Structures are given as structure tokens and as C-alpha cells.
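chain below, 513 aa
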Amino acid sequence: MSRSEPTKSSSSNWPLSIACVSLLVHVIVNATGGYGIFRDELYYIACSEHLDWGYVDQPPLSLLVLAVNRALLGDSLVALRLLPALAGAGVVLLSGLLARELGGKEFAQAIASLSALIAPLYLAIFDFYSMNAFDLLFAALSFYILIRIVRTGNPKLWPLFGLVIGSGLQNKLSILFLGFGLIMGLLLTSERRQLTGKWFWFGAAIAAALFLPYIVWQIRHGWPTLEFMRNATLYKNAPVSLVDYLGGQVLMLHPNNLLVWVPGLLYLLFSRDGSRYRLFGIAYIAIFILFVVQNGKPYYQGPTYPILFAAGGTAIERFTARRGWTWAKPALPAFLLMGGLYSAPMALPVLPVETYIRYASSIGFAPQSEERDQPTALGQHYSDMFGWKEMAETVARVYHALPPEDQAKCAILTQNYGQAGAIDFFGEVYGLPKAISGHNSYWFWGPREYTGEVMIIVGGEREEHAPDFASCEQATVHTHPYARSFETNLSIWVCRGLKWPLKEIWDEVRFFI
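prediction:
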């Protein structure tokens, strides 16, 4: 067989069918309300109203897309989360198509797509708006284009690869890690010859050109993202051991999927059939080592799995065919699907809250947080969906209890972008002004025209605020049984007479984390 000939494989309707199931599941979950809007979604919505070439904690692409999405579809949960659901369907579809590129037939393609469908990490990420949903899609597209380059020997696909990588960089910086892994895979295999071709460098130039505006923004603003990353490592992210990182891969991708992605990794690294695509196995190992050394969160590895699902499906298909194990064709998909249904409530808000808590306890799931706070009974992910509207209502009651002349000059200062985003998103209904905050990109948007004469401060303690004001009184306390530990029992302060002009001391409230 010449290098330009395609690997013999058959098209299958399974990847598209399973992708449609993925899309339908997410639309139905969000149409029924789920648990509510997610902390980061509130921040992304605020960012989409301040479009720029960069932000403290992310590049701009997903926020531009969100601004367009909101203008066209509005702010319902279904509208807000439609694009992540479509991205999820795309990753499920591409996982199956990757198996086809590896030579897998219907069984392999179905296994690959099913594995992507049931992975709890993917179910969770594709169920709310964030750059992570598109990061997974860009990674899967990168794998697909690169595997086509390797299989067909067509270097003219490198510009398309560069377009995907450059767009991915404008979405989330973590695609740099994927690029690092793939470069290592190319260097350590015979595919290193690709690195000397003009088409590869043409693709690299496209990626760099697309990324350049964000770099210029960083230079002009003093590299705030580096400060953000350093602070997150020192003060926010919980330490992760090698055992925790490995355990995270098993749980986040689903224990049943071990039967797919582990054989897939072994197939890419050691089998003769998979030797042509060994660079992808090496890329996975390189990225794994990098994240372990850097104390990365377990979910950072998530974008590397579609290729392992595809390789695993292909390896299993060939292994079972050689042994005549026809029973595996119904048995393995059923095993994956039943496992996915059993674990789905861990990633999708489909159970009533108290039912979920009992369910999680019954399967021995201990609530966890990847940050340095005390996890609630719901765990970090679900807790971040609770308390925001109620917090805005509480602040609104305090605000409307002020005399009209005080309301006219009252600023609402929050401790973090979740609180500020909640005020901004829900506050219009309650007649609240936009919030101000020193947290991440909110700091760049400044104190607006406020002087500090009258301020409602969300959170913090008296000793933090009182020295800076002529008077500072606790108006009420916001509580919510399911919110994050630092978002309940939250004091709401009314402070008057800031001792210094707010604009002059704005630098002091800045914190990037």
C-alpha cells in the first residue's frame, strides 16, 4: 500500500448518532433548569460586555463568541449553553472519526464515540459555557488534522492545523501544552521529517499570526496573565500528588473507560499496527509528565483522550476479531453505556439536590475541591451553581433600603468575579447598578465614576473595611445551604465616607488569581 492510500476502513453512522444523543442530553438537561447558572458563566457574561483583545485569565475568542451568541439567542440557560453542547457533540463525533482514520470499522468508531459520550469530565464541561468546551473541540480537531497528515502524507494540511491551533490559542492557552506534546511526539518518531517542510512552518506562521494580538495585549498591560498564573499556583490551587493525578484520570474519564483508553495508549506506544501513529502516544506521555511536574489539575489532561478512545476502540476491535469474540460487540458498548448512566448524576445536574447528596454518599463519593476551600456536600462543581440569584436579592434589599440620595452614589464592591457577575447579571431586574471588583478583569474595568462616599461591600470582615471609612455597618448576612463555603454566611456591609478617593486607591484592591 502506498503512503498516499487511505487505510481501509468503513464509514459508520454510529459517531454521528452518538453525537446527536450527546447534544440532545445537554439541551434537555438545560431546558429543565439544572441547578442554575455557574460562577464562571456569570464572569464570562460580564467579559462579553467588555470585549477586548485579552483578559487577565483568558484570551478573547470564547467571549467574542458569547457576545454574538447572547445577541442572537438571549441569556436563557438553553441559549447560553447551546454552543458548549454543540462542541461536546463535535468531540463525540471526532472521537469516532479518529477511530476511522486509524482503520477502525463500525465497532471501533462506536466504542470511541461512546467513551467520549460517557466521560464525566466531558459531560460536565459541555454542560455550561466556558472556554474549556471549545478547548476540547480544538484539541480533537488538531488530532484529526494531524492524523490525516500522517496517514495521507499530505503536508498541505499543515496550514489548516495552524489555523486550528492559532484559534485554540485565542480561546485558551492550555493548547500550548497539547502543542508541546505533539512536537515531542514528532521529534521522537520518524515523523520528525514533517518539521523541516515548508508547509509545517507555514502552518506555524498562521498560528503565530492569530495569537499575536493577544500577546500584544499582554505586553501593553504588563503581562497580567503571568501574575494570575503565579498567584493561582501559590494561593488558590490545591496541591496534587501523582496518585491524585492518576486517580483523577480514572474518575474523570470514567472507570469503565479504562478498558478503552489504556489499551489505546498501549496500542499507540507498543503495537506494530499502531506504530505509524506512535507520536500520539508519546504526546500523551509527555503532557502527562509535564502536568505532574507542574502540579497541574487532573482535568488539564482531558483534551488528550479522544485519540486514546479512538486507538482503544481500534485495538479492541482487532483483538476481538482475531479471537472471534462476537459477544464483545454488544457487551462492551452496553458496559460503557450502563456505567455512563450510573455515573451521569456526578456530572449532570439531573437529580434533586438532596437526592443527589444521598446518591453521592451511597457510591462513596467524597465531596472535593480543586481549590483551597472547604468543599460542601455538593462538591465544588455543583456548589458553584448555587446562591447567586439569592445573593443579588439580598444586596438589592440593602440597596433599596438606602435613602434615594445615597442610592444615586452607591457603589457595590465585591470580593470576587462570581459575586460581581451575579450583581451584574441578576441586578438589572432588581434595579442595581453594575458592580465593581478588584478581581481579575473586573479590576481593569475600574471603579467607574464612584467616589466611595457610599458603598455596599459584599463579604469580608469589619476589621478589613472599618479603618478605611468614616462608618461601616453590617446590614445583613447572606446564606445559602448549597453554596461554596466562602459564599455563604456572607456579610453585606454599608460603608460611608471612604477616607481616600476611590480612583487613587484602586490599585490596592487589585488581585489576580
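The CA atoms of residues 159 and 202 lie 6 Å apart. The first strand starts at residue 410 and ends at 414.
thats it, cya
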